[in-house]
Design a protein that fits this description.
Helix content of chain A: 40-55%
Number of strands of chain A: 5
Number of helices of chain A: 9
Number of domains of chain A: 2
CATH architecture of the largest domain in chain A: Up-down Bundle
Oligomer: homodimer
Distance between the termini of chain A: 18 Å
Largest interface: A-B, 18 and 18 residues
Shape of chain A: globular
CATH class of the largest domain in chain A: Mainly Alpha
């Protein structure tokens, strides 16, 4: 198990600050249901790095956390007394310090292509957050669902092989997965998206994306580290009620 | 002169597509007044790369341009039949293919620090675009000016030396400069920002930023390649009238 402490309770305001991570080790400040933090989690898992995970309560952030991330967001990677932030930069940092097993390709054009792909698929993230607004205002759901389907459709057209990285997943695959997974989560809510969670998003309408999603969830670095769906649904339920429970399922 | 064709008329819908840039050469699709494109321009100038600049009319984009950038935005770098987009990715690509004179530091933490700094200073960009909205709606000006001053103040606190890169400009310096320069441009409009263009933004209120701006404009890769202020003001005038003239000053 490379991700130690993944399913531990979130630290909140008033909780003591953990002592500094020992030199040479990695610590990742996380929130168990945050797709941005999951990008970094999956990347370290793929690289097989031993990481201590410290979960943060984003509704009652510990005061000391702002010394690690100026906005108090997750993820933050602690390494040798330094802090690296941003879900797209932590993976690049990890590849820079451990280049022998770089997930990003060595070829400069293939490298930048992965980064561009990961920016293009952010349309799914925006559309997902838009759809979540329908929890509070059901009147916007159809419009937001339309935006989501467009984003999925645009993403469908980006595939040239099973993965964005080709025959193996690369940077864009790990950075995109958490947002598609979030759509899969909310698709478990009866009648919310209309997607079938067992044929997701839909082999007929999105053949590449469906094959990709199935391939991704079957990979050990993903299957071992994603939140169990019951935890995710318990979190969504608390979120819908306006009091997100960052310890849902524990 | 490394930037060939910088002050040439913008190509627009109906204009023929330029023939492919010869193998081994660089072409940059640009708009003379676009701060995002200027990031790439200054980076290639700093690296001393010979680049052919092709300007694009963003109000009447040539049809063929969408084959080079899927959204039709600038900048786009053409190199060996491939296209690299995004103002923060083109510099990284250039450093990846020409690592011997990498502007980004080699040390992984210093590298990511430059990227994080360039994201933090984007607050100036957002505030600048907010302020520009006051051209059409003067009632929002004071609020937007307040946002801009906050962004400049936050940036002021990021300096540890003359440049973001230390004693020499680095990635974050070239990526930030165009937006501060745009604030300097609009400060030439009587009574608009209240900043003094000869003591900009203000030695007393922003000592680091003022020293940095003066140091940046004195560097040859910048002084030789930025738009003359008369061209910039002619462009702003056309923009205010609702008909941006991308050939202003030519």
């Amino acid at each position: 198990m490379t991700l130690k402490g993944l399913n531990t309770k979130a630290l909140k305001a008033g909780d003591p600050e953990p002592t500094a991570a020992p030199a040479g080790t990695f610590r990742l400040y996380n929130m168990r249901f945050c797709p941005w933090a999951e990008r970094a989690l999956l990347y370290v898992a793929r690289k097989g790095i031993d990481v201590e995970v410290v979960n943060i309560d984003l509704a009652a952030k510990p005061e000391w956390y702002f010394e690690k991330h100026y906005q108090g967001k997750v993820p933050t990677l602690e390494h040798n007394g330094k802090y690296v932030i941003e879900s797209s930069l932590i993976p690049q940092y990890l590849d820079d310090i451990l280049p022998e097993d770089s997930v990003l390709p060595k070829d400069p054009f293939e490298r930048v292509k992965q980064k561009i792909l990961s920016e293009k698929t952010l349309a799914i993230s925006s559309a997902f957050y838009g759809l979540v607004a329908a929890f509070k205002d059901p009147s916007v759901k159809e419009e937001k669902l339309g935006n989501l389907k467009k984003a999925l459709n645009d993403t469908e057209k980006l595939f040239e092989n099973t993965y964005f990285g080709g025959a193996e997943p690369s940077f864009a695959d790990y950075l995109t997965f958490p947002f598609v997974e979030r759509v899969w989560w909310v698709s478990h809510i009866e009648g919310f998206t209309g997607f079938n969670v067992k044929n997701f998003p839909c082999e007929k309408d999105y053949p590449h994306l469906t094959k990709w999603f199935n391939a991704m969830v079957s990979r050990p670095e993903i299957s071992k580290n994603i939140m169990p769906i019951e935890h995710a649904l318990a979190f969504l339920e608390s979120y819908k009620k306006g009091a997100a429970n960052y310890d849902a399922g524990l």
